[in-house]
Structures are given as structure tokens and as C-alpha cells.
Amino acid sequence: MTRYKSEEYCTGAGKMDRRTRMLSLAIVAAIVTVVVCAGCTSNSQSATSTTPPGFVLYTNKDAGVEINYPSDWQVTGNPVQGAIAEFQQGNKSTLQIQTGVLNKSGESAQSLAPALISLVEKSNSTVRLLQNQTASLAGQPGYQIVFSISNPDGTQYKELMTWTVKGASVYMIEFAGPSDLYDQQLSTAQQMIASFRLV
């Protein structure tokens, strides 16, 4: 899930090696079979009466999701396999929606947490788990973790991962960026996450 179309995670903010950028994707791939949504044609962006001022509604009918995002953020499409959409604020902070199919039935957001946390912590020696708690996503029981990670050049990043399970599918939203920008934009990301709906 940690995204990215180019070799640079954050333009001008330091480079993150390919292994680190693909950390979250590898984590989910270890737990779910990825559902590919590339080529979805029923995406739309519009403002509605339920969309907060300054936000736009993104809808992907093929994936069955909607989310409000700030009008000054860009939708960059499906940057990696399993991604529904990625939203960027100035090529520095990103919020990405991903989905996958569970490998076994009966899983819950909470039951997936230990394996995800273990994979995150083992992926890089600089990972520090900052938060680990139950949450809600799209009106469903969910789970959320926040962690920090350092680039080889010392640049600090933070990432929030929140997920839920509905039926045989897992839905995950990630918000990530350089630590200073992450802290500045966290409330905006939280508004986006709170607006996420399964349709």
C-alpha cells in the first residue's frame, strides 16, 4: 500500500528505497489475495450536498467505494496493484485506498492486526509502532496502526493504516508523508477517512 509510481516517495523530501515504499503492499499481499481494480471505468469526482465545503466526492462504482477529498488534492488513479485510488497533496503526502480478498473466511479487522503489525515491525529496523487500536471504517468494525520509519538519509516518515473487513474483502486506507507534513495534514486525512463509504 505504500504507493508509488516513481522511485521517489516524496519529490524533494528525500528518497525512500523501493523496499520501504512497497512495505505495506507486501504486508497486505501476505494476508490477502490482491483484487486488481486497474482499468476501472466508472470513477467519478463531483461535489454533492453531503460533501463538506472545499471537498469533492470520489466514487468508484466497480470497487464499491466513495470518499470525500480536498479539492486541492489530486487523484492519481491506481498506482500499484490492488489500489483503488491514490490522493496526493503536492507530491508529498498521500492517501491510498486498497482492497483485497481474504485467504480464509472468518477473519476480522482485529484478527488481522497481529500479523500486519508483525510484518510492519520486521520489514525495516527503523519502524516504530506509535499507535495500535481498534477503529471504525465505513461504519464497520476496524483496526488502525500508526508507525514511523526512517529513510537511509534520515528523513522521518509517518504512516497511518486503517482497515476493515466486509464479507470476504478487506478494505484499507493509508495516509503517509514526511513526519512534519503528516502532522500538519492528519486532521484532513481523518476527515477523508471518516467520509469513506462502501456503496
Specify Rg, calculated over alpha carbons.
Answer: 16 Å
State the domain count.
1
Q: Please provide the count of β strands.
A: 12
Q: How would you sum up the global shape?
A: globular
Please count the helical segments: 4
Q: Residue ranges: pLDDT <50 for 5 or more in a row?
A: 1-42
CATH topology: Protein Transport Mog1p, Chain A
Task: State the name of the first-level CATH class.
Answer: Alpha Beta
The appropriate CATH architecture is: 3-Layer(aba) Sandwich
SS strand fraction: 35-45%
Order of secondary-structure elements:
HHEEEEEEEHEEEEHE
Helical content (DSSP H or I, runs of 4+): 10-25%
CATH superfamily: Mog1/PsbP, alpha/beta/alpha sandwich
Average residue-wise pLDDT: 78
Query: What is the structural class?
Result: alpha+beta
Major β-sheet, in short? Answer: 8 strands, antiparallel
Index terms:
about 200 residues; alpha+beta; Protein Transport Mog1p, Chain A; 8-stranded antiparallel beta sheet; 4-stranded antiparallel beta sheet; about 25% helix; globular
How would you characterize the overall build of this protein?
The chain is globular, with a radius of gyration of 16 Å. The strands form 2 sheets. Strands 1, 5, 6, 7, 8, 9, 10 and 11 form an 8-stranded antiparallel sheet that branches. The chain has helices at 18-21, 23-31, 109-123, 179-195; strands spanning 32-34, 43-46, 55-60, 65-70, 74-77, 83-89, 93-102, 128-137, 140-150, 156-166, 169-178, 197-198. Strand 6 (83-89) and strand 7 (93-102) form a beta hairpin. The chain has one domain (18-198): 3-Layer(aba) Sandwich (Protein Transport Mog1p, Chain A), CATH 3.40.1000. With 199 residues, it is α+β, with helices and mostly antiparallel strands. 23% of the residues lie in helices and 42% in strands.
